[in-house]
Amino acid sequence: MRPRLLKRLPDFGLGTPQTVGQWTAFAIAVGVTGWLAFRLILAVIGFLLDHWYLALLLSLVLIGTTVAWWRQRVRAEQIRRRRLGQLRLTLPQIDGMRPVEFELAVRDLMDRDGLTARHTGRRGDKAADVIARDAGARTIVVQCKHTTMGRRVGAPVLYAVNGTAAALHRAQLAVIVTNGGFTRDARQTARELGIHLVGRDDLERWATHGVGFHRLLRLRDPSADRDAVRWPFSAWPADRFGVKP
């Protein structure tokens, strides 16, 4: 009988050991392989001890390569953040986008405003095209609706978002963004369910005029609170304490 712990042994085309002799041969092969690997490790360690300067050189090269790679990543992220900070989109540009481009634009706008956002829009996305977290560790689900001119988003979209935002995505805030408008029923439903709506006018303030995400939705901005904690006396003259904020 095949041992229980070895039920998932890979089969490399040689078949699975069945008899005692086959298992014995398998155990010997594993033992010899392990012994050879151990001897190889000892040989490498001995070589490095005898040629310590090579080990030091390799370590310095590895450290230097790692530092250079990390600095390049940090610089690339800084450049990306600066570009995002200057991100402005006009309504004609947004109207000319495809739905997936609109979702990516919303993600970038949230990144611009200091949130950490990722694009999740795809078939079966459970009413979440973008999921973001702000400085207060709040999870925000965004449903994006790119429409043709004059189209309005109805209440059924809000029911779908409300049904998945907290239950499936563990979100504290739900937002629906559209380049169109919302029906009267949708606005009433949003007030009842506590869902934030960003229609065409608010989208222009956000994307074109650079109004921040939290300010747009009249939400407390945790990053502002963090800055206040960092310098609690910012409203006082800085030289009163002999330091600069």
Automatic annotation (TrEMBL):
GO MF term list: DNA binding; restriction endodeoxyribonuclease activity
Organism: Herbidospora galbida
BP GO terms, sorted: DNA restriction-modification system
A Pfam family matched in the record: Mrr_cat
Keyword Transmembrane: yes
Protein's name according to its UniProt entry: Restriction endonuclease
Gene3D superfamilies registered for this protein in UniProt: 3.40.1350.10
Recorded superkingdom: Bacteria
InterPro entries assigned: Restrct_endonuc-II-like, Restrct_endonuc_IV_Mrr, tRNA_endonuc-like_dom_sf, Type_IV_Methyl-Rstrct_Enzyme
Transmembrane parts of this sequence: 20-45, 51-70
Keywords: Endonuclease, Hydrolase, Membrane, Nuclease, Transmembrane, Transmembrane helix
Domain Restriction endonuclease type IV Mrr: 94-206
